[in-house]
Design the sequence.
């Protein structure tokens, strides 16, 4: 029987990050032997996508960073707004292909790491560990065993929740004939977009040069749009709002990220755990995931090296999850104007504090200070009713075939 110390199912951001930290973390004992199981079927592999996050200085994946910004701009529906300096942080963009290449080069230096290409259909506990079964090339069955298994595959169905929205988007990578962007400023939220009947929409512009940028249309709403609908909204935003009549589109990305107060179980067996989006690493109120994946991966690796049971920790503290649940309920019940809510939040809160809050790193007094900058009465009403609300299954709704889970950082 094929045996490893650790099996990681899925070679996306969460799977690659965990493998990277497991073999790179200093500590007692030798690093584990790791089998990374990557999907054989191309349809099961996520398409190339963009991950964004913020951190101080240069990080360990700096060689994969496509661009970064020290200023964030938020524009309200009326065109007002301002730019906010992110110091001491930088807002960074990583393309998934660059991240994969960087991490795989590092993993190749470790003899105890290997990759198996197979479509996994079973993950279960067995005596002494866990077993992963799947189908490899030519229909050959493979069975792998390890002391611990970490499954990063997105769940087929979301757990029961009180409130759920979808963050869905389509983006164009564009080039212009003349300089049209400020490479130092990321336009994080631009609410000069037609607002949906239920939910909130905004534009998102990440310049990668004076004449290049990723331009996205994003909605927080119950149901994704069709590809044609995204294209119409992007044309309107690019031409009518940004004035980029000559922009040429050379690549696209599209995705759906769940925004939910559902509880994602991180331990699903004696030796089986879930990580990444499947393990609750997506921030419910924003869709950001990449930084939480790194925190979760580091903690798992540290626990393994200590000889402890490597249960993935909750990526965000309980207080942050509770505040997210309130915000989601506010948006679902339409008790606040979403565009005004987010615009005011950035205008009235120090940017560094707000970024720490979005990463779940603020202290209680900072959370209270941020909460006082929001519509207090709707927030208090919603906070009071949440404990009385049952968690329910989300009704099945169609998702366009072109939509892919960006799982991971969001807007």
Sequence:
């Amino acid at each position: 029987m094929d045996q490893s110390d650790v099996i990681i199912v899925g070679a996306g951001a969460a799977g690659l990050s965990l493998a990277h930290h497991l073999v790179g973390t200093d500590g007692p004992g030798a690093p584990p032997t790791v089998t990374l199981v990557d999907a054989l079927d191309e349809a099961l592999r996520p398409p190339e996508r963009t991950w964004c996050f913020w951190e101080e200085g240069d990080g360990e994946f700096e060689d994969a960073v496509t661009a970064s910004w020290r200023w964030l701009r938020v524009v309200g529906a009326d065109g007002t707004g301002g730019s906010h300096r992110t110091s001491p942080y930088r807002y960074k963009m990583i393309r998934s292909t660059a991240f994969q290449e960087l991490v795989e080069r590092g993993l190749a230096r470790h003899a105890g790491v290997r990759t198996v290409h197979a479509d996994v259909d079973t993950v279960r506990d067995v005596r002494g560990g866990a077993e992963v079964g799947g189908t490899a090339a030519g229909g050959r069955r493979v069975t792998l065993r390890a002391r611990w298994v970490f499954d990063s595959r997105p769940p087929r169905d979301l757990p029961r929740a009180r409130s759920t929205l979808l963050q869905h988007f389509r983006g164009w990578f564009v080039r212009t004939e003349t300089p049209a962007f400020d490479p130092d400023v990321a336009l994080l939220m631009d609410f000069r977009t037609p607002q949906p009947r239920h939910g909130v929409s905004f534009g998102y512009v990440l310049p990668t040069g004076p004449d290049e940028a990723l331009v996205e249309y994003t909605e927080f709403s119950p149901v994704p749009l069709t590809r044609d609908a995204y294209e119409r909204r992007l044309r309107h935003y690019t031409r009518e709002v940004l004035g980029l009549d000559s922009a040429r589109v050379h690549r696209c990305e599209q995705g759906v990220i769940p925004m939910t107060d559902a509880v994602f179980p991180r331990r699903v067996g004696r030796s089986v755990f879930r990580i990444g989006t499947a393990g609750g690493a997506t921030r419910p109120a924003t869709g950001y995931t990449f930084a939480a994946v790194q925190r979760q991966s580091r903690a798992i690796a540290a626990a393994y090296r200590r000889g402890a049971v490597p249960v993935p920790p909750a990526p965000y503290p309980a207080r942050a999850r509770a505040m997210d649940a309130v915000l989601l309920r506010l948006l679902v019940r339409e008790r606040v104007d979403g565009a005004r809510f987010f615009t005011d939040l950035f205008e009235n809160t120090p940017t560094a504090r707000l970024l720490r809050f979005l990463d779940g790193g603020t202290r209680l007094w900072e959370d209270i200070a941020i909460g006082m900058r929001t519509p207090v009465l709707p927030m208090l009403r919603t906070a009071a009713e949440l404990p009385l609300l049952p968690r329910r299954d989300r009704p099945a709704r169609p998702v366009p075939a072109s939509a892919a889970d960006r799982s991971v950082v969001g807007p």
